[in-house]
């Protein structure tokens, strides 16, 4: 099964998409990566979904990536005696550590670390910013606030603190349990929520011990400010526009999205654009025109992947949502303007032999009659470098490591193929030609570019490029041993 687009689609699984038939249909409609949201459900349910994904992978013969999204330190108020309270603009309201049920004058905020970091004038946003308050005075166990935007506050609503870098670890006790469970399960990517600093990523990496790649979710102003440092220690990035749009003015999110996507591409690290992309399809079989434009914008920007959340996890039309996103991607990438935008945003980077090899592969593919760039890889690094170039032709990633191929399912333009051991370059060329033919990228009359590292099976040795025929008879006549 070959995708007719380069951008990848991430589909979240949930109550609407937990059975074999639906997950298989989501994959066939275009999902390349399945997201397990650890904020909802239990481990037994997540394992059942994971097992079905691997069953679909075996049935289709195509690597499929699984991303486990950790909940992170979600901050919430306590409960109210009446279940809720109405707050009016201009009134005062206290947050404290008293566990007693709240009322229209106060409620518990069971996070002493917040009070330790708060300052006069800091903003607090409740229930995704629907209620806003400003700190007037505060101490180690309280904050007296004035309501700047009123509304109804109810039990366990979330709290955002955009103006303060909180002394909170990115991994709660629940996250640590979920991380160990997900790694033991065999997920390919771990997404970290509410990252504020590079140390948060390093902590997760230490716990994962190489069992999964680490993807940092950018959803706090502190993460935007420290983005270069966070990107340097992450394997991938998610632009999580939901909380980012709560903690920052909504008009600032689009330029931030554009900057982050370009920075990730320059670093050859995959980036997902996420949240509310086709939100109306939770209840409607058709998206709004604005939502389609939003998805298209992320694709024009060169994002590696676009993501569905509640649309595929809890919506009434999960398969239709994936199919819609797939159709939008095909349409955008067929537009001549798409290539103009992608090529205009390419930044030359020539620091290593591998950089030079992949740049040459892209230039050859664009100036000669070449149908695909075939990369042999152990870790996926070479494929990521080729993807950074955003070539016009497909990228075929070949590896003996299924774990590498599954992680690469998140990388722009890659078609992942498991191959047997390769000891000599001629074997590599033959395997690449066969993969190009088998998956419909080329015929015997066509040519491909092959990149590899010699000696084989040694990490970081990409040092050879060859333009080769797809006809094995010609390969054996022309290729050296």
What would you say this structure looks like, in words?
By secondary structure, the chain is an alpha/beta fold. The chain has three domains: 8-72 and 169-333, Phosphoenolpyruvate-binding domains (TIM Barrel), CATH 3.20.20; 84-160, PK beta-barrel domain-like (M1 Pyruvate Kinase, Domain 3, Beta Barrel); 353-478, Pyruvate kinase, C-terminal domain (Pyruvate Kinase, Chain: A, domain 1, 3-Layer(aba) Sandwich). 38% of the residues lie in helices and 22% in strands. The protein has 18 helices and 21 strands. The chain has helices at 20-29, 43-60, 112-117, 173-185, 198-208, 221-225, 227-233, 241-247, 253-266, 289-300, 310-313, 318-333, 336-344, 353-367, 381-388, 402-408, 425-438, 472-478, and strands at 8-13, 33-37, 65-69, 84-87, 92-96, 106-108, 123-126, 131-139, 142-149, 151-154, 159-160, 189-192, 213-218, 236-240, 271-274, 305-308, 373-376, 395-399, 414-418, 447-453, 462-469. Helix 1 packs across helix 2. The radius of gyration is 24 Å and the shape is elongated.
């Amino acid at each position: 099964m070959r995708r007719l687009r380069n951008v990848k689609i991430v589909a979240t699984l949930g109550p609407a998409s937990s059975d074999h038939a639906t997950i298989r249909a989501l994959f066939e409609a275009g999902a390349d990566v399945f997201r397990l949201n650890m904020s909802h459900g239990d481990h037994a349910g997540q394992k059942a979904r994971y097992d079905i994904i691997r069953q679909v992978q075996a049935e289709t013969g195509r690597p499929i990536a699984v991303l486990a999204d950790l909940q992170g330190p979600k901050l919430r108020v306590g409960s109210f005696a009446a279940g809720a309270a109405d707050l009016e603009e201009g009134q005062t309201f206290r947050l404290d550590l008293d566990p007693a049920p709240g009322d229209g004058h106060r409620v518990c905020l069971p996070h002493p670390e917040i009070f330790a970091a708060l300052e006069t004038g800091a903003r607090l946003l409740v229930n995704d910013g629907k209620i806003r308050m400003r700190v007037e005075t505060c101490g180690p166990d309280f904050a007296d606030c004035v309501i700047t935007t009123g509304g109804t506050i109810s039990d366990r609503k979330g709290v955002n603190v955009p103006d303060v870098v909180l002394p909170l670890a990115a991994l709660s006790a629940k996250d640590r349990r979920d991380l160990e469970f997900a790694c033991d399960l065999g997920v390919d990517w771990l997404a970290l929520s509410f990252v504020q600093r590079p140390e948060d990523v390093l902590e997760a990496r230490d716990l994962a011990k190489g069992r999964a790649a680490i993807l940092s979710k950018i959803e706090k102003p502190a993460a935007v400010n420290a983005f270069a440092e966070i990107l340097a220690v992450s394997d991938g990035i998610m632009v999580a526009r939901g909380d980012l749009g709560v903690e920052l003015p909504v008009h600032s999110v689009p330029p931030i999205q554009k900057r982050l996507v370009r920075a990730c591409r320059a670093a050859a690290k995959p980036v997902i654009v996420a949240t509310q992309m086709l939100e109306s399809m939770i209840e409607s079989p058709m998206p709004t025109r604005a939502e389609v434009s939003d998805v298209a914008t992320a694709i024009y920007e060169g994002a590696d992947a676009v993501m569905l959340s509640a649309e595929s996890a809890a919506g009434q039309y999960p398969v239709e949502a994936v199919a819609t996103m797939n159709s939008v991607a095909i349409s955008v990438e067929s537009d001549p303007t798409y290539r103009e935008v992608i090529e205009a945003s390419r930044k030359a980077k020539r620091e290593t032999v591998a950089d030079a090899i992949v740049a040459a592969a892209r230039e050859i593919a664009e100036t000669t009659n070449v149908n695909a760039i075939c990369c042999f890889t152990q870790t996926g690094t070479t494929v990521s470098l080729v993807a950074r170039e955003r070539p016009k032709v497909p990228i075929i990633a070949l590896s003996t490591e299924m774990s590498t191929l599954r992680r690469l399912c998140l990388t722009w333009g890659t078609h992942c193929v498991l191959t047997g051991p390769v000891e000599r370059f001629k074997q590599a060329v033959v395997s690449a030609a066969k993969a190009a033919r088998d998956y419909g990228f080329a015929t015997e009359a066509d040519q491909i570019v092959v990149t590899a590292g010699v000696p084989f099976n040694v990490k970081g040795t990409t040092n050879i490029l060859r333009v080769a025929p797809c006809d094995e008879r010609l390969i054996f006549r022309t290729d050296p041993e």
